[in-house]
Amino acid sequence: MTPSAPAAPSASTLAFVESPVQLLNVLEWAYARPGAQPQLDGVPRQRGRRAGGADLPGPAPRPAGAASSLRIVVLPPTDPMSRGQLRRVAALARDEGHEVRWQEARGSRFAPLKALAALARDVRAARTVVVGDPFSRYVQLLLTLVRAEELVVVDDGTATMEFMAQTARGERLVRWHRVGGGGLPGRIRELAYAPVSATARRRFTPAAHRGHRVEVFSSMPVTAHGGMTLRVNDFAWTRARFGPPRLTRGTDLVGTSLVETGVVDPDRYLDAVRALTLEHGATRYFAHRRESPEKLRALSRATGLEIVRPDLPLELIARRGPVGRTIVSFPSTVVHTLPYALSGTGVTVAVCDVDPAWLTGSASPRARSFLAGVTDTARDVRRLPAQAAPTA
């Protein structure tokens, strides 16, 4: 009988990601650590494609048996677009010399428990744990096992702004667009889960654990509190690895999943995209990975825009190019990240306000002020007024 291979040694740093953006930001965090910009055999890594399509020099192969100090665990969602982007960013992470583990935690009744059992040993052994979504119930469940001295939160988009606000106020962690519901069964689930959620909140509070450090690595306009450490993510890894991009003469629009999350009325959204297309001469629409095919087909028919479904996070797509000289977005993560990623390229990022009249009746009470805050705090962007709804 062939003996089984020994288990891989536990990495000192363990990261959990559930989206392509989270994985990209883990790469940025690893690159930004003092003295930790990835090199191998003294050769800096360069990977990607120039704007014209030529390959950049790739990294030398990692020596056989070499261990990565950073192990990234991908907990993929079920939708195909997110999974495809995650696989491509995971390939970039492996090129950087990081170890990547793909762990299914969804899709069946017992998948979460199986994943928890498979990860428990590594979680307990890690000295630093990096998470991309502090609102994730699965991540919060993993945090009950964490013994690490250091906990790091990297951006999962603008949700970081709400995370910092809620932890500062000592509130339970709830996504800004979530509306309470589910009736009695939902309330029972919330009560049963309350101890896990409370433990997660304490993990994110350095004062609650002596010798416990919490770092937030973010591109968002947030302020540290309660003993947290804040470091700015300026997309140095992305700028070092890709571009600068070739610029086109047109304008690109960036899609949003505000319709899919129930915040914005789909007809009002279509009207706004049509108006922006006409006003700015837009030719391409970069779809959010969660936008539905039906919605995108309707947008294409109504506007004539070329619908682009990116295979990587938009920060990487824009940096590789080609990209429009102007990029127009609704309030979203990219109005904070693209000015960093495209610094020095001559690209103008513009943000269009969301008119309160666009919001659905089921939008959370927090939605209006949160979206306004995303726009008002964006740096180095051009602000556009909300597109007026057409008259009947």
Description:
- This protein has 392 residues and is α/β, with parallel strands linked by helices.
- It has two domains: 13-37 and 66-233, 3-Layer(aba) Sandwich (Rossmann fold), CATH 3.40.50; 243-384, 3-Layer(aba) Sandwich (Rossmann fold).
- Helices cover 36% and strands 17% of the residues.
- The chain has twelve helices and 15 strands.
- The strands form three sheets. The chain has a seven-stranded parallel sheet with strand order 5-4-1-6-7-8-9.
- Helix 1 runs parallel beside helix 2, helix 4 packs across helix 6 and helix 8 packs across helix 9.
Strand order of the largest sheet: 5-4-1-6-7-8-9
Mean pLDDT: 83
Give the total of domains.
2
From the 3D coordinates, which CATH architecture of the largest domain would you assign?
3-Layer(aba) Sandwich
- Helical fraction: 25-40%
Q: Helix-strand pattern, N to C?
A: EHEEEHEHEHEHHEEHEHEHEHEHEHE
Using the coordinates shown, work out and report the CATH topology of the largest domain: Rossmann fold
Summarize the structure.
The chain has about 400 residues and is of the alpha/beta class.
List keywords for this structure.
Rossmann fold, six-stranded parallel β-sheet, 392 residues, disordered N terminus, 2 domains, alpha/beta
Question: Which SSEs are present, and which pair or pack?
Answer:
Blueprint: E1 13-17, H1 20-32, E2 39-40, E3 43-44, E4 70-74, H2 80-95, E5 99-102, H3 111-125, E6 128-131, H4 137-143, E7 150-154, H5 159-169, H6 183-203, E8 213-218, E9 229-232, H7 236-241, E10 247-254, H8 266-280, E11 282-286, H9 293-303, E12 306-308, H10 314-320, E13 323-329, H11 334-341, E14 348-352, H12 367-376, E15 382-384
Parallel strand pairs: 1-4, 1-6, 4-5, 6-7, 7-8, 8-9, 10-11, 10-13, 11-12, 13-14, 14-15
Antiparallel strand pairs: 2-3
